[in-house]
Amino acid sequence: MSDVTRTRHGRPVHHWRRDLVELAALFTAVAVADIVANLVGHGPGGPALLAISAFALLATAGFHTWWSRRHGHAPPTGDTGSTGDTGARSAARVRQAGPRGPESPSGSGPEQQPSSVAPDDVAEPAALWRMRTTVRDAPGSLAALCTALAGRQVDILSLQTHPLAEGTVDEFLLRAPGEVAASEITRVVAAAGGSSTWIERADAHDLVDAPTRVLGLATRTALDAAELPLALRQLLGRCTIRSLPATAPGKGRESESVPAEGSLEDTVLRLRAPEGGVITVERPYLPFTPTEFARARALVELDARLGPRIPRSQDVLTLPEGNAITVRRADTGDLEAAREMHERCSARTLGMRYHGPVGDADRYLNHLLSPRFGRTLAVQTASGRIVGLGHLLWDGDETEVALLVEDDWQRRGIGGELLGRLVAMAVEAGCESVYAVTQASNTGMVAAMRGLELPLDYQIEEGTLVVTARLDTAATSVDVTEFGRAQAP
Q1: If 469 and its partner were Cys, which of 101, 124, 226, 454 is the partner (CB 3.0–4.6 Å)?
Q2: Dihedral of CA 110/111/116/119: which sign?
Q3: Residue 476: phi, psi to the nearest 5?
Q4: pLDDT at 46
Q5: Three-state DSSP class for 250?
Q6: Distance, CA of 306 to CA of 298 (rounded, Å)
């Protein structure tokens, strides 16, 4: 009986008339077969005639099968796989039922693993790697290295060359199959003539070509002098950057004189800061190349030519009691106004902030307000008087936050507002954490840190409290939007 049906409103619909016709045809065929069998079987030579007919039918079926296979009617072979005589599609071509997924790059539909493939057989996703290696400065040396990488199905996405006095340092951005480990890549490179190979995982941000990245860093430095240390860190990778003030030579290794063009010593480079100090960059895990030194020096020279500068935008906020305040960036031009604020602060407030003799507070201001060492936010009243300062200080590879609010303006939310904006700046700069050094009795600073709603670590030693806030992505992806989005106030 035929199994052909059609659907109406999602349900199969059967035709009873078709069923009756098929039953009538079946009964008629049986009756005709019975009549023919009686006539032939009871006639003269009937059994022999039936045997001959059966033999003829079998011979015809065998001939048809041989003819079909000889002339290409058998199931196809080759790239579709052998499927026997059933005509079934190869498992590699079978697509599971259900909604179609994203189209494959070839446009032939989604590529799905057959259900018979074990999970261990699924190919791992490709991985991005950053690699440096030193090769001989001879024709064909780089070609041999590229050929060796191609033999392991490693794709070279970008290549930069750093010439040395002897040899060349080649920096690669690679895309390798997921099952190819870093150790295997380094073995292949060593066999092809590479030496002093260094490799680490990369991400999508490394896909930007070097000229574009350098131009972007130069733009950031041109807009804000405080961006120079951050630009150097992004240019040179994981490194420790320290800005040292100008001091008389001969008073220690850190204050030694540096040539005007700077100096490069393997894993340490030193550059003259525009204000006369020294910028020291250390990267113990990977020596600097002359090319990197030239790029860093160009950024510092750009900063020196542009002179002191900070963004001049500002935000006007209204406190709960109705007073309007302005939050803006500050620099050394605000030195006198900051000293006047010191004079209005109590000895207890200055001691909580500077952890030392109150009379020494003023001498820290020139360092704190310099954009070379970090970023400073100032809170200003409608009359133009500064009543609060917040500092985000680059401390090597760590970041410190510090607050000072005039006594008469405390307990109004100013400290929390400053701290939130400083943390947002740290997040934007890519810092992993910020820490605050205060006293255990400074409940206002502790409350402001807790108000960030970030993971906090506490360390107490001899009355000094260090509170560290971790700025991992999970914690900052939501909360940072409440901090003003680091909009250069």
Answers
A1: 454
A2: negative
A3: -100, -15
A4: 66
A5: coil
A6: 13
Instruction: For domain 314-483, give the fold.
Output: Aminopeptidase (3.40.630)
* d(C-alpha 49, C-alpha 52), whole Å: 5
Please give the Cα distance from 245 to 373 (Å, whole number). Answer: 10
User: For helices 182-191 and 141-151, what crossing angle results, to 10°?
Assistant: 140
CB 267 within 8 A of CB 286: yes
Q: Residue 426: enclosing H or E segment and its boundaries? A: helix 414-428
Which strand (E) or helix (H) includes residue 476?
helix 473-479
Fold of 127-204: Alpha-Beta Plaits (3.30.70)
CA distance 243 to 238: 17
Helices 228-236 and 290-306, interaxial angle, to 10°?
Answer: 160
Measured distance CA(219)–CA(47) in Å, rounded: 103
Provide the H-helix boundaries in 136-178: 141-151
- Under-70 pLDDT residues of the chain: 1-16, 36, 39-47, 49-50, 67-123, 246-256, 473-489
Look up residue 465 and give its amino acid.
L
At 93, is the secondary structure helix, strand, or coil? helix
Dihedral, 135, 137, 139, 142 alpha carbons, nearest 10: 30
Question: φ, ψ for residue 148 (rounded to 5)?
Answer: -65, -40
- Tell me which residue has tokens 């009686």: 38
What is the CA 232 to chain-centroid distance, rounded? 19
Report CA 11 to chain centroid distance, whole Å: 50
3-state secondary structure of 339: helix
401-420 pLDDT tens trace: 999 999 999 999 999 999 99
Comparing CA positions, the residue from 416, 454, 415, 453 lying closest to residue 433 is 454
Identity of the residue numbered 391: H
Domain ranges of the chain: 127-204, 210-306, 314-483
Q: What pLDDT, on the 0 to 100 scale, is given for residue 130?
A: 92
Contact present, 404 and 427 (Cβ < 8 Å): no
| Sheet containing 268-272, strands listed edge to edge, beginning at the edge strand earlier in sequence | 240-244, 278-282, 268-272, 263-265
- Please tell me the pTM assigned to this model: 0.59
User: Rounded to whole angstroms, how far apart are CA atoms 222 and 299?
Assistant: 9
Tokens in use for 61?
Answer: 């079926």
Token representation of residue 269:
């480079």
Task: Report the SS3 class of residue 82.
Answer: coil
Q: Please give the single-letter amino acid code of residue 105.
A: P
34: left (phi over 0), alpha (psi -120 to 50) or beta: alpha
* Per-residue tokens: 309: 């500068």
Q: How many residues does the chain have?
A: 489
At residue 422, the 3 state secondary structure works out as: helix
Identify the three-state secondary structure at position 28: helix
